[in-house]
Design a protein that fits this description.
The protein has one domain (7-85): 3-Layer(aba) Sandwich (Rossmann fold), CATH 3.40.50.720. The chain contains three helices and two strands; from the N terminus they run αβαβα. It has helices spanning 7-12, 33-44, 55-66, and strands at residues 24-25, 53-54. It has a two-stranded parallel sheet with strand order 1-2. The radius of gyration is 16 Å and the shape is elongated.
Length: 97
């Protein structure tokens, strides 16, 4: 798995390019449970899928890119962000509450 913007060198080495990002639930946020719930609720409103990602979801994307299952993928940008990058306003149509 390479880095965005490294297309020429990565292509010659037959590496796959990927990006995994987005609001993901990890210990780095290190907040009280109440503060975390407020943060997650606010952040989730801007994500079309309506929730934060889990670290395991990002890891599965990275494992896929590192596996033979992605052997025909070259120069792809895979965003693991619940659709936030494709819809920066949070795609309110998905929020039915």
């Amino acid at each position: 798995m390479g880095v965005i913007g490294n297309g020429g060198a990565a292509t010659r080495r037959r590496e796959r390019i990927g990006r995994a990002g987005g609001a993901t639930r990890t210990p780095i946020w290190n907040q009280t449970p109440e503060a975390w719930e407020r943060f997650a609720a606010g952040m989730s409103r801007s994500i079309p899928l309506g929730r934060l990602g889990e670290a395991e979801e990002v890891a599965r994307a990275a494992l896929f890119l590192a596996s033979d299952d992605s052997s025909y993928i070259q120069g792809a940008d895979i965003s693991v962000d619940g659709g936030a990058g494709a819809s920066p306003l949070g795609a309110p149509v998905y929020h039915l509450d």
